[in-house]
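User: I'm writing a tutorial on reading structure tokens. Could you give me a worked example: one chain, its sequence, then its tokens, then a sentence or two explaining what the tokens reveal?
Assistant: Sure. Here is the example chain.
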Amino acid sequence: MLKYFNFISTAILLIFCINLNALNAARIKDIAAIKGIRTNQLIGYGLIIGLDGTGDKSGADFTTQGLANMMERMGISVDKNALSVKNIAAVMVTANIPPFARIGNKLDIIASSIGDAKSLSGGTLLLTPLKGVDGKVYALAQGAVAIGGAGAGNAGGNTQKNHLQVARIANGATVEREIPMQLNGKKSLTLSLLNPDFTTAVRVADTINASVGKDVARTVDSSALELKVPEEMQESQVAQFIADIEALEVIPDTKAKVVVNEKTGTVIIGDNVTISTVAVAHGNLTVTIKKDVDVSQPEPFAGGETVVNEQTNVEMEEEKVSLMTLEGGTTIGELVRGLNSIGATPRDMITILQSIKAAGALQADLEII
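And here are its predicted structure tokens:
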């Protein structure tokens, strides 16, 4: 039964042998991006009102000061020390503005409490300017928030589902300023790989030159390629040129890597991993110490005494050591089958891989997470 359990434990080990050659080629748009065409982050300080007593407490000075400043701008003079803010919460509002976003486009926003509010449920975000890193306002946010959770309780206890201090508003912001970006007229572009690799960069350049035209793409380094825009497309068809490039397919190359998650017993092994000649021995030594108690009881009316004798038995059991030899150039499938054949459990397999790496026989990066 124990051997059967070990077999099942080994069988449930999750191993992905990724064969890149068997996968479909990836589009260039999925592995690279044009330099300068990117998402930008926006941030702003706002107030959420209408909370059911779950807002910031009176000690949150930035909340009362923010409310007083807003009312001052609306022509109402108030003393911030006289304000009760149990139904108001101060939040930081964040959003991402995509490239080429036009005035009037909508953005999703996230409002996160910065005070001691218990919940943002049922609140409404007041008009909040969202600024870029340059300090300019690029969008305005406002609307009813949704938190996707709930909470309830009293002095005797409480219950909560999901996080209540972060809210989201779909299409909650409107773009008010465009980020300048001009494509037409450009003579060259820089294509940046998301995962820098010299082999992949060369493959991308060769694919572009074979499809679009000779000397259109030139490899700069492991992460960048310089693209020359054809003269006939420079004036008004740069976007079409980029679209043509992004649609091309390339088989990306990756480094040989083994990723191990010790918490879950998961091992992910890449296709390019190779094993040099190595021998692996696997076995366990089990020591069992058992204490027996022997009680000697005299006959009735014999006048004797009860005597307790303790006996300690020490037993040692050692599993038969299994030896597995891996020749140079061993494939991943052979490695996995070999480890299963010697009865390696998921935890044993992780230890064995670490030992093979320490011996210098694992020709790959071993990453432990």
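What the tokens reveal: The chain has a mean pLDDT of 78. The first helix runs from residue 2 to 11.
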